[in-house]
Structure formats: C-alpha cells, structure tokens
Amino acid sequence: MWPGTHCHWGAGWGDPEGKVTRAQWKWVQAALTNVALEVLLSNPGPPPSCTDAGWYQGQIKMIACDDERSVQLYKAAIANVGEVYPGARLVAVDKKDIPSRPRARVWIPATPSQPDQIMQLIRACNPNLPTRGWRFVKAFEDPAAESCMETKRATMQILLLLTKKSLEPLSKSDGEINYGFTKVKVMTHKSDADAVDNLESETECEDEEDPTQSSSDVENTEQGEYFEVLA
Questions:
Q1: Domain region containing 48
Q2: pTM (2 decimals)?
Q3: Percentage of residues of the chain with pLDDT beyond 90
C-alpha cells in the first residue's frame, strides 16, 4: 500500500465469507465515528491517522493506518461498535490474514444474461466441478452498446470469484467447462489465490480476448474495474 503503513480491514463475520456490502459499510463508518471520542478519551495520546484504501476483490474493506497507535485505536473502535447491522460481527485483522479468493474471466454467450441464471447454468452443466462457492461479480460493458450501435456482440465477458478447491480440476481441463451445448474457458487470475497485495484499481489487469472475435474487436474491449460488491 504505502510505506510504513499497516493495512487492516473491517469484515462482517455474520457473513461466512467475511464480506461487507457498500451500504453496510456506510453504517460501519457511522458507528466508528460514534465511538471515536470514547476511544480517544480512553486512550490518551495522538489521534489516529487512517485512510480508506479501497476494496479487496469487491467485498472486503481495506483501511490503511499510518502507525501502530492508529492500528490499535482502530481495532479498539471496531471492538466497540457492536452489531452495526443484523448478524454483523466486525473484526480488524492484518492484510496477510485476508481470506483470498481467486478470480476468473469467462467469455460466454450473451444470453442468458442474468447472474443467477448464468450461475445456475454453470452448476447444472458441471456437476463434478466444485462450483458451489463460485460467485458472479460483474459483466463487462459492451462497447457497441455504449456507442449506441444497432448491433451487439453475441458474447459477453464476465468476472467470477472462484474457490481454491476448484483450481486443480480447472487446471486439469485447461480451464474448459461445459456451458449449455458448448464449452467455455475459465481464465483464472492465478496470483489471486496466493497474494493479497493486488487491491482494486482501474488498470489492475487487462481484458482477455474473446476467442470468437477478431483481433480488431479486442482493441475496443473495456478495461475491468473491480468495484462490484457481492450481496
């Protein structure tokens, strides 16, 4: 993140994956502000210096603290906020302890386009693949649609969160999975399974080429921004 900083995250442990939605995080921020004075009066000394450091994989809030005192004050505040929203059990941990999830991009036919239908089709067509924990993150915008062109692509690119246990069988099939009456390739960002330093940014990674399109089509592909939050 930044030199000399300590990164922590606030996670809703009421969720099995530790994720916090953006709407929920607004309530967490309000709760933290509400207990701030109490924490400072109970721990005399310099005030904390903490900065919002974005989201990790769209579901885990990252906070950068400038020094160890700021870390301890932040942890104390998190411990004092209580159940901010139903089922929330918040905790602040070091970035090395973040539960990392691998991501993947997949080119699929443009229909069905609803996330729940896409995931149901993936699971129905791949009963021997551990897809139960897979989550739909986003569909990348079609440049043709953005430019008001009459024709749209017959395919679209989506971003998925996978599970680590699915990486081995995907590797054995070279990433190919069944999808309806065809096969599609799951292109995994392998570094996600092992590292947590790749926070979201507008230029985090480039789009993969749609295997059904020519090279000229690829030049118009939008770069991904991983800001969607899993509900």
A1: 6-97
A2: 0.53
A3: 42
